[in-house]
Amino acid sequence: MFHWQLLTPLLLITVQIYEAQECEKFTKLNVGHAFIGTSLTIRLLLYTRENGTCGSLISHTNISANPQFNLSRPTTFVIHGFRPTGSPPVWMNDMTEQLLARSDINVIVVDWNRGAATSYFNAVKNTKKAGANLTAFIELMQEHGASLSSIHMIGFSLGAHIAGFVGSSLNGSLGRITGLDPAGIMFTHSPPQDRLDSTDAQFVDVLHTDSDSLGFREPLGHIDFYANGGTDQPGCPKTIFSGESYFKCDHQRSVILYIDSMTQTCQSRAYPCSSYKDFLNGKCLECDQFGAAGCPVFGYDVTQWKDTLLKLKQTKTFFTTNAKTPFCMTNYKMDVMIWNKDVHWGYITVKFHYNGTETVATIDHAASEFKKYTETKLLAQFDKDIQKVEKMSLKFSTGNVLKPKYKLRVLRIRLTHLEPEQRPLCRYDVLLEENREVTFRPIPCEVPNF
Questions:
Q1: CA–CA separation, 402 vs 407, rounded Å?
Q2: Measured between alpha carbons, how far is 283 from 429 in angstroms, rounded to an integer?
Q3: Best exposed site among 80, 101, 109, 411 by fewest CB in 10 Å?
Q4: Are residues 286 and 406 in the same domain?
């Protein structure tokens, strides 16, 4: 009996500690819930550096009930989209982890799975209701001392428009809204008040990855990034036989690219252009309008260009990626001049070699025209960067199987790294036989005299 009297208080303390440390989880539903339909419920899950993997539920009416919610910190809301299977978003934990790794902030995961796991039509109807709910909560935050300028909302798909509705209700006072492939279905051709718009926050940045299917095609923010043209993403299935991945891979790539941008392993420079075709053809590689900072870098850190982008009002940019992380590619401007008498059309593959490592750029989106004593400008995008170029390989091809093999007589080839501190590389007087790779050492470029 004596021992039990000693142990009872310890057991009570243990239970209390367990209850205090119990973590709130994102609502887990299934296809059955989605098929029947769910009514809208908003749960706000708070994560901080003190509880980075253990969410705590925030009261919509009593903010002070959660002492971890420090309103002197900036706050980032993460809002998911339509949930046709009812399962939690697979990317949510990674997003939260990377946000907290970058800044000492409050991360609030907006769990509206009950309301998103239903028919798409009903989920769309719930977006304005969800926006109204979040607006009331942010107004309560403001009453307790939070600054609207320190609030960042990151919304994926339908979540991007929810963020827009909140921002609009607060008269564009939010600091930043990031739209990750905002939903296009039932929002395309809608007026600004019925979708995300550049007036919804002090700064709005948008990424497009599936604009030909589930995403929104037209620009929506102060800066709009079109990854790989904003449509088909490398590494995603090309046929319906791949199952559900065929439908969601391009759309969901927006979240994966954004998370990858926060790791700072490499950067994806984005170039202002009117079309992806012109970008690939090397017609949009000038960055003078952005000053010494150069063209904007996609992702979390684009706020470094905020002041310039606000003056420009709307900037549409393009960049390309690899099929998997690290997604960043390394860009060179390539100028080719030939001295063949006849005009030739074809494709160029370039390889850089250093210390047993190689990186490849294949310029095959369209056949390029090569004309005597005329400089052909190309964009060479390498799958990775290397420290130094020891050797370079070139291959010319036409794609014509039945016609005679051509020889491209190159008077000069020049490759200029698009990061300005890099020195251009050249080679003079090279003979390229079709489909045969030629390897040589590049040399520093001479001052052109023709």
A1: 16
A2: 26
A3: 101
A4: no
Q: Kindly state whether residues 277 and 360 are assigned to the same domain.
A: no
Question: Is residue 65 a part of any domain in this protein?
Answer: yes
In terms of DSSP H, where are the helices of 294-383?
306-312
Residue 83 assigned as binding residue: no
Which residues have CB under 8 Å from 120's CB, separation 6+? 82, 84, 185, 186
d(CA 338, CA 404) in angstroms, rounded, equals 19
| Judgement on whether residues 187 and 275 belong to the same structural domain of the protein | yes
Is residue 181 part of the annotated active site? The answer reads yes
Please check if 383 is assigned to a binding site. no
Range of the domain at 334: 330-444
Binding site annotation covers 307? no
Whether the full predicted model's pTM is greater than 0.70, yes or no, is: yes
Q: In the listed set 268, 297, 319, which residue is the last one of a domain according to the structure?
A: 319
Residues in the chain with pLDDT values less than 50: 1-20, 450
- Domain count along the chain: 2
pLDDT at 21: 57
Catalytic, 251? Answer yes
How wide is the angle at C-alpha 318 spanned by C-alphas 445 and 229, nearest 5°?
Answer: 120
Same domain, residue pair 369 and 242: no
CA–CA separation, 208 and 140 (whole Å): 33
Within 13 A of 83's CA, how many CA atoms are on the CB side? 30
| Strand ranges, E, within 310-406 | 315-319, 330-338, 344-354, 357-370, 376-382, 391-397
Residue 19: what pLDDT? 42
pLDDT value at residue 18: 36
| Cα 92 to chain centroid, rounded | 15
CATH of the domain at 358: 2.60.60.20
Tokens of 134: 């979040």
Burial 8-39 (b: 16+ CB within 10 A, else e): eeeeeeeeeeeeeeeebebbebeeebbeeebe
How far is the C-alpha of 44 from the C-alpha of 79, rounded, in Å? 10
- Tell me what pLDDT residue 155 has: 98
Of 288, 319, 350, at which residue does a domain stop?
A: 319
CATH number of the domain encompassing residue 183: 3.40.50.1820
Spatial distance between the Cα atoms of 404 and 398, rounded to a whole number of angstroms: 10
Which of 250, 54, 82 shows the shortest CA–CA distance to 155? 82
Catalytic residue among 208, 222, 251, 417: 251
CB atoms closer than 10 angstroms to residue 139: 13
- Tokens encoding 246: 């065929």
